[in-house]
Amino acid sequence: MLTAEEAAALHPSPPVTESKIRRLRLLASDPNPKIRESVASSYNTPDDLFLTLANDPDAGVRGCVAKNEATPCDILRMLADDRSETVRGWVAINYFVPADVMDKLATDKSKTVRSLVKWKSQLAEAV
Length: 127
Prior knowledge:
- With 127 residues, the chain is mainly alpha-helical.
- It has one domain (15-126): Leucine-rich Repeat Variant (Alpha Horseshoe).
- The protein contains 9 helices and no strands.
- It has helices at residues 4-10, 18-27, 33-40, 47-54, 59-67, 73-79, 85-93, 99-105, 111-126.
- Helix 3 packs parallel to helix 5 (59-67) and helix 5 packs parallel to helix 7 (85-93).
- The longest helix is centred in the last third of the chain and has 16 residues, at 111-126.
C-alpha cells in the first residue's frame, strides 16, 4: 500500500499552463453555478478570479471559495461577513483561515458557525 506522498510522487499533477488558466477564466463566467463551483474549488484559480467568485450570487460558488485552502486570506476575511451561514461555516473550518477571522466567527450570529469554530478549536487542542 502506497502512502499519499508516494502516490503523488508516482503520479505528479500536470504543470499549470496559461491554457489552463484561460479555461478557468472562461469557466468562471459559465451560467451554470456548478461549473463556477468547480473553478472556485481549483487550487490553480488565480487570486483575482477567487475575488470574482467570492462575489458570485450563488452561495454554493461562494462556499467553494470559502473552503478552498488556496483562497487568499483577505478573501476569507471578506467571506466571514457573507450573508450565507453556510459560507461563513465553510470559512470557519478552512484550515488556513487567519486567527482574527476565527475570533470574529466565534461571535457569529449563527449558532452553527459558532459551533464549527468551537469544534475546530477543540481539534487543534487535541493535536
